[in-house]
Give the backbone structure.
Amino acid sequence: MKFIIYLTLFTLIIGIACSEPDAIDPDINSVNEAIETSNKSAPSTESKLNQGITNNENKTDIVTESSRSASNTYDEAKPLNTSCLLSGGESVDVGWTGNDTGNNSCNVCLCGLEGLGCSKMACSDAMDSKSLVELIELPEKMAETMVGIANEMMQDTTAETSSSSVQDPCLKMALNLRPMCYMMSQKSQEERLLMGQSFMSSSRDDTPPVLYNLLIEDFGAFNARTSMMGPFKFSKSFAGGSKPTVFDEFGKVHDAGKPTEYENPTFEYKFPSGTELLSPVTGIVDDISWQPTESYKQDDWELNIKPSRFSQWRVSIDHVVSLACDLSSKEVCTKALLINGEEIRVGTEIKAGDSIGYAGNWVDTSNSGMNERTEITVGKFASGGVFESYCPIMYLHESVKQDFRDSISSLMDSYEEWSGNPGLYNQSKMIEPGCSYEQINDKDNKTTVIK
């Protein structure tokens, strides 16, 4: 594409260099006035990107025999020409096409039955080095402008770019060079739009996230004396309840036999009070939302992190409360989530290992001291309103993957052995420790297993 633009530019420069400085089309002043007037207020980012620079009053105005016949705009009784006189005094026959001569040599012409029709570009034989450099750099300036506009659109798709941030590169050029600039803009509009579309398309990042933990860094080994395994507490009263596991695997059936039955698309943990959570990934906060208690106990936050600005992937940490909360209080704590003392907002940058809060609320119906729970989901947006969730183990960094595989396996083994129930986890059918499947799709709160 650059080759085409530069070839066009070279041709135009050669044409200008051999013409007269004073032979400027009388329409050019009005053209420049119209251009300057139209550029006093900048258009929106979207219109800039989709339409390019459209202040072009210098489109080729060639009169052809077929167009005249179609519109019936000439008088058939009027004698028709058999030849045309070029600006340099040369005579050409009807049907001739090419560059004019003399002080209009930069324009393309056609000799028709009604006379000579030419494009209306201002021709000048006086071009200083600064103007030459401006013209040579023009395609690069246009490309930079388009990329800048595209970047602003994708960073804030709801905002219009201010007039100070979108500059027309043609306005920086000498007055007599602007018509050429706008003609070049019009000529390359299609190429620039294709470039913008390609840029927008390529900016959608489908690179999966890389996890460095699973909300907790150290599962540890089961301690029979304390009935603890890392942050997990093994409680007989909890194990005797309706939801007896401290870890629910990816694919575990919840609400079995009920209309609300679904396959769990997360790793879900149950903890005693005061368990701190770590960010598993480095990225940018895409969404943070407060979840009030409705059909079940919540009153906590959900945090979504994307690994890059244009990523389709999300790492969701559901059920988190602020580090600023007093966990001994029975009052609902709505304080904002914090990282290093700063409030977490949309756009906040997070690093893997950052402490993001305590595990969220869980109703301790068994009086076991297990009153916190949290979930981690790894997935991406797909077409048709589908969110694709994937086994979190698959996206761990190689430096920690095997350790977490071993930790998850050890947690399931230890809990089954401690509880005396070896059938809690069907590990022989798991594709990875803690994952019954590789992928679970969710649409309208209905899950579909992808095997």
